[in-house]
Structures are given as structure tokens and as C-alpha cells.
Amino acid sequence: MNINDALPIGTVIKLKKAEKRVVIMGIYQQVEEGNNIEAYDYMGVPYPEGFIGAESTVLFQQDDIETVFSLGFSDIERQAFVADLSSKEEENKQ
């Protein structure tokens, strides 16, 4: 996923293989699985309940999203965050 295309925190989506909607609560998540670090585009929680425990979180990729119902909040602070992530992503490519 290109960071400039990342959906903002608070966006409500439906995943392709899920019945329940999800609200995005994190982007660019990394999870240690054994000796590997797995990277995911997003972390979300059930909508409308929100976080009801660690077992309620779901990690997913941009390609897993079927429908966007509502975009989350975006302002200058988020724009600066995305710009910072984008420059770090460029540095890592070099």
C-alpha cells in the first residue's frame, strides 16, 4: 500500500470475508509471529462496539477492503504524519 493512499483512523469499512463492519484504529502495523515480523496495512475493531479486548482486533491489508462506509478524520496533523511515514518509506527503499 502506498502510504499516501492510507485510509484515516476512524474509517468504517467492510472486509471482503466478513459480515461485520470494522473501524480502523491503526495503520502500518507490525506483529511478531515466531521469528518473523509480519506487516499489515491496518488494524481495526468491530463497529459499532469498538475495542472490547485484544481478541476483538483484526489485522488486514488494503486489498481485503470491500466497501468504505465512512472516512475517518483527517487534518494537518495527519497530513504531517503521512508525509513523515512516506519519507521513511522512501529511505527504506534506498
Question: Your description of this structure?
Answer:
This protein is of the alpha+beta class and 94 residues long. The protein has a single domain, classed as Roll (SH3 type barrels), CATH 2.30.30. 19% of the residues lie in helices and 39% in strands. Strand 1 (12-15) and strand 2 (21-33) form a beta hairpin. The chain is globular.
Helicity, in percent?
Answer: 10-25%
Strand content range: 35-45%
Number of helices: 1
What is the helix/strand order? EEEEEH
CATH architecture designation: Roll
Using only CA atoms, what is the Rg?
14 Å
Strand order, main sheet: write it out: 4-3-2-1-5
Q: Compute the average pLDDT.
A: 92
Structural domains: how many: 1
The biggest beta sheet reads:
5 strands, antiparallel
